[in-house]
Specification:
With 400 residues, the protein is of the alpha/beta class. The protein has 16 helices and 14 strands. 58% of the residues are buried.
Length: 400
């Protein structure tokens, strides 16, 4: 691990001013148990060897990097590369931490995995882990996302998970997190709450980042092998931010590599019509940690919108808030129209149908390529778009 990863977060789970663990009293001992188990198992040769075997022989890692020659030629300027997490088993980066969390839960003697999901990729990945380890699985999902991401709901059920619809409030990711936490409290003795991103109370922002670090390690080595150097720019979409931290962590100590997080600007910069938390958020608390937060006139978490269900969250991982404040990562945005155009472009010109979440990073790469001739851009293709094709084609058609 690099020097930054060794020193951040601190012992209390803070990345600078952000992070921590603000828990209701009943959950304090359970999160202490998770922290202690992770601290022990993260340096256990037995645990790490089993995780390596799972990644190689079940997940199909390492995933490759693809040079997107056609897209690079069409955009002009920079050469564009994609880290292909869409080729990870279950079709997204989420399985990297879900299999690790499932293994952690197994070592802790838990019998059930619980979580929230937005786009459904985390839910599918956790249901996969539960099936692999012989555990029960309970996934909470907003009704809006259930309708948009029907293929993933079907996959979760086929894998044996119980999918709990959440119908209150915005009926999306935030409410799914609320619902899952509430259901977890009375089951905490036997269940493991597998948070789906680099969010939540300590140790989850650190733990999920560490489990996703494999993406950055692979990408750095692969890019160097392909080109003899490192990329000039590294980019990833940011909702909670797990795929981004996975990729960024491989390059965070390389000062000559600029890092770019791409937030969802939705339909406009008006509150309630985007989910660009770092661009418009203020310091606040949500789901047991301190971070940047989109808030309404009452100071409560604001309603958000994005075409991509997996980015539909009014907060952001505390490490992203910290990296924005320090300036190590540049945060920008892509709106729904740009993401949709990138979705069609990657499909038509490269034969790769991206997740709508990942399409925000594709949009960034296409936009920046024109302005950076002779440079190289590596983005994280964090998931495949199978889950989105019905929604996209029924709502927007086939892209002309």
């Amino acid at each position: 691990m690099t020097s930054y990863l060794k020193t951040t977060p601190n012992a209390d789970g803070f990345f600078g001013d952000y992070g921590g663990a603000m828990l209701p009293p009943p959950l304090i001992p359970h999160f202490k148990e998770i922290r202690e188990a992770y601290a022990k198992l993260s340096v256990s040769p037995e645990f790490l060897d089993e995780l390596r075997l799972i990644r190689k022989h079940f997940q199909g890692r390492p995933t490759p990097i693809s040079h997107l020659k056609n897209l690079s030629r069409i955009c002009g300027g920079a050469q564009i590369y994609a880290k292909r997490e869409d080729l990870n088993h279950t079709g997204a980066h989420k399985l990297n931490h879900c299999m690790a969390e499932g293994l952690l839960a197994k070592y802790m003697g838990k019998t059930k995995l619980m979580a929230e999901t937005g786009a459904g990729q985390h839910g599918v990945a956790l249901a996969t882990a539960a099936a692999y380890f012989g555990m029960e699985c309970e996934i909470h999902m907003g009704e809006i996302d259930i309708a948009k991401e029907a293929p993933n709901v079907t996959r979760m059920k086929l894998l044996g998970a119980t999918v709990v619809p959440v119908g209150h409030g915005g009926r999306s990711l935030k409410e799914a997190v609320d619902s899952a936490f509430e259901a977890y409290v009375p089951q905490a003795d036997t269940a493991f709450f597998a948070i789906g991103s680099v969010v939540g109370p300590h140790p989850f922002p650190m733990m999920v980042r560490d489990f996703q670090h494999v993406v950055g390690i692979e990408a750095r080595d692969q890019f160097h092998e392909m080109t003899g150097g490192l990329p000039d720019m590294v980019a990833a979409c940011v909702g909670g931010g797990s795929n981004a931290m996975g990729l960024f962590s491989g390059f965070i100590d390389d000062e000559n590599v600029s890092l770019h997080g791409v937030e969802p600007m939705g339909t406009s910069s008006k509150l309630g019509e985007h989910a660009a938390t770092i661009s418009f958020g203020v310091d606040g608390d949500i789901h047991g940690f301190h971070t940047l937060l989109l808030v309404d006139e009452n100071g409560d978490p604001a309603p958000v919108h994005t075409i991509a269900s997996g980015l539909d969250y009014p907060g952001v991982g505390p490490e992203h808030a910290h990296l924005s404040k320090t300036g190590r990562v540049n945060y920008t945005s892509a709106n729904d129209k740009e993401a949709l155009a990138a979705f069609y472009a990657l499909s038509r010109h490269e034969g790769i149908i991206p997740a709508l979440e990942s399409a925000h990073a594709v949009a960034f790469a296409m936009r920046e390529a024109k302005a950076n001739p002779g440079k190289s851009i590596l983005f994280n293709l964090s998931g495949r778009g199978d889950k989105d094709i019905d929604y996209v084609t029924e709502t927007f058609g086939f892209g002309g």
